[in-house]
TrEMBL record:
Ketoreductase domain mapped to chain residues: 10-206
N-terminal signal peptide: none
BP GO annotations: fatty acid beta-oxidation
Database matches in SUPFAM superfamilies: NAD(P)-binding Rossmann-fold domains
Gene3D superfamilies per record: NAD(P)-binding Rossmann-like Domain
Organism: Bradyrhizobium diazoefficiens (strain JCM 10833 / BCRC 13528 / IAM 13628 / NBRC 14792 / USDA 110)
MF-aspect GO terms: (3S)-3-hydroxyacyl-CoA dehydrogenase (NAD+) activity; enoyl-CoA hydratase activity
Parts of the chain that traverse the membrane: none
Protein name in the entry: Bll6372 protein
Organism ancestry: Bacteria, Pseudomonadati, Pseudomonadota, Alphaproteobacteria, Hyphomicrobiales
Length: 306
């Protein structure tokens, strides 16, 4: 019988923890013994406004259940404020063992209509945010010879989706960031993994429902609650996951999937080299059978969640 997975004595930062997936992760981290820094600026899904209430409410909830937690409302989008999150963890609890990069916003728009502001805002919170908080924590994990990063990615990036070029680019960037953290910090016993969650949240609630197809998609996601994501995040932050590093997982209700990572599928070679014409006549026809379709996430994950 496997022993209970615990995080006693560990200090965990969960960004974007004022609601949804981050809320569930923070609560379970606290219930499993972690001291939790609950970060959330309290902004809207589009990143506007700020309110200390959500972070404070979750921290209070953890303490009421017998855990230890402190609220933080710093933005992950800037290096200086992201560093303050880590400093608060160190000042309050004395160390940092795990960072869950969950904070995010959406500003969906078809690519040919997307503004630079919409692009920059999403990239800064998701990709820059994951970098800033991870970078601030990394030296402390290196010094203590141990730690774990858990980053939230998305099948919008891993597979594709309409109207989310900013979000998809950020989420694929996070996969690359996680892999290099795993490679660079493995010798310090620091791990880095990604979770691609299917769950109802404020961000998913912002998806347009103008068509029957969009309405059906949202109704399907509503069945998948944020508490389904938390167990994997807790496991990845624990010592039980010591051998798990550089991986990408999907959680879809009661399913956990290990995602593939890019590797060569087909190869063609000509001793004399290639010209545009021989590429057209030889290379592309030889590889066409292995081309990927223009799939969206819902095309690949087309079965009902269990």
């Amino acid at each position: 019988m496997t022993s209970e997975v615990r995080l006693d004595g560990k200090v965990v930062i969960v960004t974007g923890a004022g609601g949804g997936i981050g809320h569930s992760i923070a609560l379970l981290m606290g219930a499993r013994g972690a001291k939790v820094v609950v970060n959330d600026i309290g902004a809207s899904v589009s990143g506007e406004g700020a309110d200390v209430g959500p972070a404070q409410s979750v921290a209070t909830e953890i303490r009421a259940a017998g855990g230890e937690a402190v609220a933080n409302t710093d933005s992950v989008a800037e290096a200086v404020s992201a560093n303050r999150i880590v400093v608060q963890a160190l000042d309050t609890f004395g160390r940092i063992d795990c960072v869950v990069n969950n904070a995010g916003i959406l500003r969906d728009r078809y690519f040919h209509k997307m503004s630079r502001d919409e692009w920059n805002a999403v990239i800064k919170v998701h990709l820059y945010g994951a970098f800033h908080v991870s970078r601030a924590a990394a030296p402390h994990m290196r010094e203590q010879q141990g730690g774990a990063f858990v980053h939230m990615t998305s099948t919008s990036g891993l597979i594709g989706n309409y109207g989310q070029s900013n979000y998809a680019a950020a989420k694929m960037g996070i996969v690359g960031l996680s892999k290099i953290i795993a490679l660079d910090m493995h010798k310090f016993n620091v791990r880095s993994n990604c979770i691609s969650p299917f769950a109802w949240s404020r961000m998913v609630g912002a998806i347009p429902t103008d068509t029957p197809e969009q309405q059906a998609r949202v109704e399907k996601v509503k069945q998948m609650t944020p508490d389904k994501i938390a167990p994997l995040a807790v496991y990845l932050g624990s010592d039980s996951a010591a051998a798990v590093n550089g991986q990408v997982f999907v959680v879809r209700n009661n399913e956990i999937m290990l995602m593939s990572q890019p590797r060569p599928l087909r190869s063609v070679q000509r001793t004399e080299g290639w010209t545009p014409e021989t590429i057209a006549d030889h290379a592309m026809p030889a590889m066409r059978a292995s081309f990927f379709d223009l799939d969206r996430s819902s095309d690949v994950f087309c079965w009902d969640p269990v």
